[in-house]
Design goal:
The complex is a heterodimer of chains A (39) and B (210). With 39 residues, chain A is an alpha+beta fold. In chain A, 41% of the residues lie in helices and 28% in strands. Chain B is elongated and about 55 Å long. The chains are: A alpha+beta (39), B alpha/beta (210).
Chain lengths: 39, 210
């Protein structure tokens, strides 16, 4: 999603009772964004 | 309606009418047909309205169609707890390329990619096909034969990626859909709910990305 669309994350989380995790692609794998920023 | 009009469907013997996806079928555009179908059935038949979501407009329509309605709520969480929800942030122009890389990174299994517009479905399908990814597209602008072919392709496993608009978000039950990708993110949580409902259908786990 784009930076503009990120605002929808909290909407979905609140309305649907879910938790959405931000991820990134690195070397052909999906990894947690937090892990990417620490690497 | 056509089956009834052509007398292919014998309505006097009908004992139960099920209106699935009621929250959509009872909106203005479909409501006259639903009323006509119900009118064509015997007065003593049972009416069942099924929906994953509720909205005031449809509640009003149901009240007129079934004044003695008994509401049953399952009490289940609206979204399966077996679905993992993840999102990637990128520029709009990079979405097709990110999608391609994401599809390679995802575990094996069928994927449904949701877009807002028919044209986007065609564009994304063409770009993925260019990179030798077996893909089909399913959207409202496609003719009936192409839509049928797309469904056969994804169900048979001939392709593992289905690019689709919300026309396919409801009612479809495609086995083995492991991943839902919102290429275009829905603005309403209800739409998100229906999209992700295409995975984890009696399966252990599903993922949703973007």
């Amino acid at each position: 999603m784009t930076a503009d669309e990120v605002r929808l994350v909290s909407r979905f989380e609140n309305a649907l009772g879910i938790v959405m995790h931000r991820v990134r692609l690195r070397e052909g794998r999906v990894i947690a964004a937090e892990a990417a920023s620490l690497a | 309606m056509r089956l009834i009009a052509n007398r292919k469907l014998k309505t006097p013997a009908i004992g139960c009418v099920v209106i699935d996806e009621a929250d959509r079928l009872l909106l203005d555009e479909s409501l006259p047909d639903v009323r006509a179908i119900i009118r064509a059935t015997p007065a003593g038949r049972q009416l069942v309205f099924a929906s994953a979501t509720e909205q005031p407009e449809t509640a009003a329509a149901i009240a007129t169609l079934a004044p003695d309605l008994i509401m049953l709520r399952t009490g289940a969480a609206p979204v399966s707890e077996n679905i993992e929800h993840r999102y990637l942030v990128c520029e709009e122009r990079d979405k097709p390329d990110v999608l391609r890389k994401l599809l390679h990174a995802l575990p094996p299994g069928r994927a449904m990619v949701f877009v807002h517009r028919n044209e986007t479905a065609e564009m994304v399908a063409a770009k993925l096909a260019h990179h030798q990814i077996a893909v089909a597209s399913l959207h409202a602008a496609a003719d009936k034969r192409d839509r049928k072919q797309a469904m056969e392709d994804i169900r048979s496993g001939r392709v593992r990626v289905l690019i689709t608009s919300d026309v396919a978000a409801r009612g479809l039950d495609i086995a083995g859909v492991a991943n839902i990708v919102n290429f275009d993110v829905p603005t309403q949580s209800k739409a998100y709910l229906h999209r992700v409902g295409r995975t984890a259908r009696a399966e252990p786990r599903g993922g949703r990305r973007r």
